[in-house]
Amino acid sequence: MLHIDTQRLLDSLQTLGQFGALPGGGVNRLALTDADQAARDWTVAQMRALDMQVQVDAIGNVIATYAGSEDLPPVMMGSHIDTVRTGGLYDGNLGVMAGLEVVRTLRQAGVRTRRPLAVAFFTNEEGARFQPDMLGSLVYVGGLPLEQALQTRAVDGPLLGEELIRIGYDGAAQVGQPAVDSYFELHIEQGPVLDQAGIQIGVVEGVQGIYWTRLTFSGKSNHAGTTPMHLRRDAGMAAMRTAAFVHDLVQRMGGGQLATVGSLELEPNLVNVIAAEASMTVDLRNTDAQVLAAARAQLHAYAMQCATAHGVQLQTQVLADFAPVAFDAEMIASIERHAKQAGLSTLRLPSGAGHDAQMLARICPAAMIFVPSVDGVSHNVHEYTPPADLGRGAQVLLQAVLERANR
Amino acid sequence: MLHIDTQRLLDSLQTLGQFGALPGGGVNRLALTDADQAARDWTVAQMRALDMQVQVDAIGNVIATYAGSEDLPPVMMGSHIDTVRTGGLYDGNLGVMAGLEVVRTLRQAGVRTRRPLAVAFFTNEEGARFQPDMLGSLVYVGGLPLEQALQTRAVDGPLLGEELIRIGYDGAAQVGQPAVDSYFELHIEQGPVLDQAGIQIGVVEGVQGIYWTRLTFSGKSNHAGTTPMHLRRDAGMAAMRTAAFVHDLVQRMGGGQLATVGSLELEPNLVNVIAAEASMTVDLRNTDAQVLAAARAQLHAYAMQCATAHGVQLQTQVLADFAPVAFDAEMIASIERHAKQAGLSTLRLPSGAGHDAQMLARICPAAMIFVPSVDGVSHNVHEYTPPADLGRGAQVLLQAVLERANR
User: Fold this and answer.
1) What's the pLDDT score for residue B379?
2) Its Gene Ontology molecular function terms (chains A, B) (predicted)?
3) CATH architecture for segment(s) A6-208+324-406
4) Residue B247 annotated as binding site
5) Which CATH class is domain B214-322?
């Protein structure tokens, strides 16, 4: 039986983590920045060193193929290597580095699978610099026109297409090529469930639906000391009340409905000036599409009513809208079986976060493997998964991919 | 009878408004910036051209004295020439330019008052770059030690003392000199009361108490999709709930109690990351010291309770704390009498905003004259007072100052 090398996998994650490393630990590697370019260049060099054929497509997705004994659609492994502004070593990176470690293990043992293997990393999964998130894989599966994606503006100004050219990742390959047999993604859970239950392998059944919206309230700036409360048009208060409402709402709803107001900005943002404008985001998630739709409808109804009550205007922009996704039953069963055969504890669970796998699931059978995140910490410089858990996840990935590629 | 020249007053306001002028109208002249330096230099040149003796004190207050027939403490007029980031032509500037117009009118007519006249502008009245607001006049009256004031850090980094040196306004004069007989401040109302009632002159009886606090909530950043609601430590939600609470509170309290959350910042401020830190300000005002104290106590009690409920830490910083101020009864009566003698409509009212006059009231008789603000718009580039109203206010100032200085 083949075994992946946990230390080698860990080394590759730590080397990759040096691109965009933050002084106090953690990584800031927003999509298509200089740090992302450096990380891409290094990863591509790793791929080439494994005799993989590397192609870059027009949205900057990188797909490296390791030939099989037959010229069939490859079994793909992958994820992303961009991070949030205060990210860790594992989110996304693990799926890519574990894919390369699987290829490295096979190559070292001189093993060729029947179907080719591919390792991919997709552009702008995090959505921290360009919206929507999972943009590269969304374009790959035909969910967003290439031209529209290239016109997406970064939070710091430039267009996505300009940034691809700037860092040299405006590739020649057509998006959506090659057609793939199936897609496996190993990822940290990014939540507390496995860690708290002491479970080694999460067998992911699907992904929550995700809805992101930006609400922009426009009122009138005025003096905080001379404007009676009833004459105000306070955009900030309308936004903050809407935030409090949605938080109350999901707690009343229960059942795993999530809501997050992670971003809010006031203008002019001064202590003694009533805010003329307030821009906030709301992130809603649920595995149940109907409940998610209900939360979304109540949010928008309240925001409109609140805007009216405060005498302010409301503009709504949908930033992301993904229905819940179910993964492939056969691949799920295979992952679970290989984990159990290796004596590992398993738990079937949904993914709370969005992943490239949910996009790939639109065009091929797809599945995910989770390993624990200590304390569920994620999108945080303190994100951590012990090396033994990383190794277990990569080993299950290897076994499941071998079975799939040799069938 | 002497008459001020309204057109000349207007010209001086418009010239002053060119320093820090914003492209679309309005003024951005934060205290001790390059724009403030240019405005100070121009104003000092105007003072010198009127044969006034100019002194700059150690906190950058500028006081120009026009000699009287006797060497007595001067009757002072003044205000400030710094603005908020999105200010207008009139706030503060009117009090200084009208003071100079009074002196100009007397000088042109060859009139000397018994007591000297002084025109002053005080450093950092707005509090938009350094906190607390009304800093220069506060130091002038001994309410804040000079050394502490010089160590105040700007929102953009440098210390106040460094900025005074940089722009050449670290003056040699001792703060609090000269002792003054009395202080008059002409100002736009910055509120809607006079404009809505069609009143020409506001006779200001006193100033609301002002309390500013910064509340900083510290929680834990985490993934918006994988962290169950009950396991979150969401600093942003604690802040936004506290904002909604204080808004509800003052509406329940009624009676002129004001509350404004003008500034709120989240970290890391990303759509899919629970905020680790939220920093907000609350501005509370009331003419009734007891009611203001009650609002303040309820705010802090709720914020603490809310922090605990969200599992986040709370740090509180008091940025400003000024008790309500009553102006001098004799000066109030004099202003009212001169306005009525000129056939103008008057209304006694409190000031909702803080003004340098409330500081001067600690050391000498003080009073203020208000002119209408169209629609009550203030701290806004659309701030506007018609020229005729500016002229009426300056004329009442002239008459009241003449009476006071010749008594």
Assistant:
1) 85
2) hydrolase activity, acting on carbon-nitrogen (but not peptide) bonds, in linear amidines; metal ion binding
3) 3-Layer(aba) Sandwich (3.40)
4) no
5) alpha beta
